[in-house]
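Sharing a chain and its predicted structure for anyone who wants a worked example. Both blocks are below, sequence first, tokens second.
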Amino acid sequence: MKPEDTEVWSPVPKKVTPGANNTAPSDAIVLFDGKNLDAWTKDNGSPAHWTVGDGAMTVAKGGGIKTKQQFGSFQLHIEWRSPAKVVGEGQGRGNSGIFMQELYELQVLDSYESKTYSNGQAGSFYKQRIPLVNPTKGPGEWQTYDVIWTAPVFNADGILVSKARATVLLNGVLVQNNVELDGPTEYIGIPKYVAHGKKSIALQDHGNPVSFRNVWIREL
């Protein structure tokens, strides 16, 4: 063989301009840029009601919010901050959640120096997958999730073909390494898949004033 025999020239990957300092790359969909909630609604479809200020959106009483646009597989970047004033302990301390496709919760929690069950701390897929390590920062500090999400696949009859998978970095540290999920998040009981298509990114109201900023996504 000649060297040319193993050279592949087509297709040529599309040029993408990377963002600086975790800002969105040129092909990303910006879901929150610190200015408004135009890309979001409440869980029931009415206008999003969380507060916006100082470049962040903060949980407000009255339920969670979700993106107007729906997604399958994606790369997600989102930054979050638990309250600087520590109130409560365990699951009552800086609790929220980021739901992939509205169904699969990546836990948001002040887990810096607070004990809770391991599959419920920050970096976990709630009650399913324990994070490899705990790289969380202290209360009131901004934390960063970068998620590679592979959506589950169902056939025309609604039968599961392949499970959801995810890789997650928390503050730049790998905490979930291409893990396979058993189904949607359940607070009580065993997860079980039910066929679905593209769905929204949802953020949880768990009664704590957790803030989010710099949210962008790339469809895969």
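Comments welcome. The mean pLDDT is 95.
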